[in-house]
Amino acid sequence: MAKRSSLSIRIVEGKNLPAKDITGSSDPYCIVKVDNEPIIRTATVWKTLCPFWGEEYQVHLPPTFHAVAFYVMDEDALSRDDVIGKVCLTRDTLAAHPKGFSGWAHLTEVDPDEEVQGEIHLRLEVVPGARACRLRCSVLEARDLAPKDRNGASDPFVRVRYNGRTQETSIVKKSCYPRWNETFEFELEEGGTEALCVEAWDWDLVSRNDFLGKVVFNVHRLGAAQQEEGWFRLQPDQSKSRQEEGNLGSLQLEVRLRDETVLPSGCYQPLVQLLCHEVKLGIQGPRQLIPLIEEMTSTECRQEVATNLLKLFLGQGLAKEFLDLLFQLELGRTSEANTLFRSNSLASKSMESFLKVAGMRYLHGVLGPIIDRIFEEKKYVELDPSKIEVKDVGCSGLHRPQTEAELLEQSAQTLRAHLGALLSALCRSVRACPAVVRATFRQLFQRVRERFPSAQHQDVPFIAVTSFLCLRFFSPAIMAPKLFHLRERHADARTSRTLLLLAKAVQNVGNMDTPASRAKEAWMEPLQPTVHQGVAQLKDFITKLVDIEEKEELDLQRSLSLQATPVKEGPLFIHRTKGKGPLMSSSFKKLYFSLTTEALSFAKTPSSKCVNELNQWLSALRKVSINNTGLLGSYHPGVFRGDKWSCCHQKDKTDLGCDKTRSQVTLQEWNDPLDHDLEAQLIYRHLLGMEAALREKHRELSTSTEAGSVPTGPGEALEDPLAQMLQVLQDLQEAHSRSPASSEPLEPNCLLELQT
To answer: What are the C2 domain coordinates in residue numbering (predicted)?
Structure first.
């Protein structure tokens, strides 16, 4: 059993930000840090003091994290980006809001003395003496200190203060992992101060020393234990008066912390077997669980529940059967063909999650080259005459600027080329589409054709497929390539407009070029010939896509399983720090890598396969290693060069390491390794929230029909799955109440209390 923590983050918008540019505006973006580790960078919103982002993230993190901070920055092309302000939410603050923190928060000034990080290793003891006891403080080492100098390191020393006396260690040059092994003694006096203050500083030859953090101890509590040794987290100096809140603007956030105690796998087997049995049966009835879950799940959390269920059944090899059951439920309550799969039903949300989990590599193969070309060309593209800006393009020759008509025609040609290239790539990709995705679309196509068999509905099965493939998968990826890991950064304003217009064209093709879709935006008419041709291409593609036999599906899956399937692949960024201060700029050296079940390879240029972000494969490695009993407790983040380690300057090559091994904070990626127990726990947690409604439903059904018997063996049919589900929930509640982890504190209590 283990504790798992995650953050659901939505960065909504900002307002009343101060102007940082000479134009009287700013170009704001957000950086999110968990315990000083940067994990998220939003898009830049250009030339505004009231930016809207609307970006959502799911973050894995250790249960022992302390705070999450949101920095609002102003992007500058020629100089270092300006820090506008920050919002900091501690773990205690988030824990006090079980349903999540939601609302506006004032930005506060970023004080360098508060931007501290790292830990210090100390040993404190009370030594008896002839006349009086003495307080002995041994400053051993520190790790992960904030780099304050331009060389990406610091020159740290430690200042120890007690009862009006101050002593200092030696200075360790160019290190964020210093070792001192120095001891200081102070005489304990009756009525003396209770606090021992240990401060870390960065020494500077010319300017003033930079504060690196401090720890304050209660000496009286130490007296009873006589000695205490350990690593202590450095804390900021909050004694300064800060700038008044409100004049730096505000940030609207939605942040929810979820702590889960995950039980051993065996505890979840009854729940998993019950759900899987229902999916295998594929029948509908008043006591079926999946329809009840959909009925009682609110719109706000339906996507989350759909993703959890989908991942659970994907891990059990039943994703196609689960989705087929949802297709039947949706078709059974749909009378109008034009409304099919257009709502936010459990079927729509689950299929959307399925494509992101199973089809991301396929998406990269089809869309990647087109998206890369758009980013590289950076052409001005606009079809809406009310938004055309001749000045953004400049002169087409030496004598005259382009006219509005010429710009519109040039834009139409560019978009036709991109749309044509995309449709051609799609038509060539039938065999590249994963077998399980093809089989699922085949099942969807057949179910819809059986439900709407008339000639007037001959396009409905095609539209059902494109409603997911085009409208809910390809189009969102075109509009936001970074969120689908197609690009490393968000697009600029010009490129974003091109992507948006291309996504609209793909949607028109996906809608089969209906009169209703054409009437929405008449200025898209220049693309009509390509859209019309694209409809025929898309229908031919779907016909071939769903033409997969059961034997072919098994053969494809078998052949794929025999290959050295890449676990993670993409660009590896080697971080090289520059600048000074907690928000220093960084440059990266890019290498491309491929991690398979057999080898890890690197290259200077990308291969023909898809490119994903660094945190995806780091997340995979972290999850593989999380239960490794032989995991080292510490390591060297540097290399042994010459006669010493570059990170801590220690001369012993066999030293155990200067930095502790810890689970890093990572973004949740769609192709993260499936964590079956965690998915089952999340489903249990959701069902527990609706337990009262499920019991009421059971009582209601029991009064109208005779209750069935509960099966006594695995081979018997489930006659009353709702009653068995209620029993499973009760058993899991009892298992959690017996779990030691449910009552354990997240961190052990230290004898020495921090004085705030």
So the answer is: 1-105, 116-232
Rounded to whole angstroms, the Cα distance separating 401 from 738 reads 77
Each residue of 124-163: b (16+ CB within 10 Å) or e?
A: bbbeeeeeeeebebbbebbbbbbbbbeebbbbbbbbbbbb
Q: Is residue 346 part of a domain?
A: no
Same domain flag for 391 and 312: no
Give the span between the Cα atoms of 155 and 201, in whole angstroms: 8
Is 718 in contact with 724 (CB distance < 8 Å)? yes
Is residue 351, in this structure, part of any structural domain at all?
A: no
pLDDT score at 305 = 92
Contacts of 94 (CB under 8 A, 6+ apart): 7, 68, 101, 255, 256, 257
Distances in whole angstroms, Cα of residue 302 to Cα of each of 293, 299, 334, 678: 10, 5, 19, 18
Whether 301 and 206 share a structural domain:
no
Summarised one tens digit per residue, pLDDT across range 482-533 is 888 888 777 888 899 999 999 999 999 998 877 766 667 888 899 999 999 9
Query: Where residue 539 sits, what CATH number does that domain have?
Result: 1.10.506.10
Rounded distance between C-alpha atoms, residue 377 and residue 494, angstroms:
11
Q: Which CATH number is 45's domain given?
A: 2.60.40.150
One domain for residues 514 and 370: yes
Q: Is pLDDT at 219 greater than 90 in this prediction?
A: no
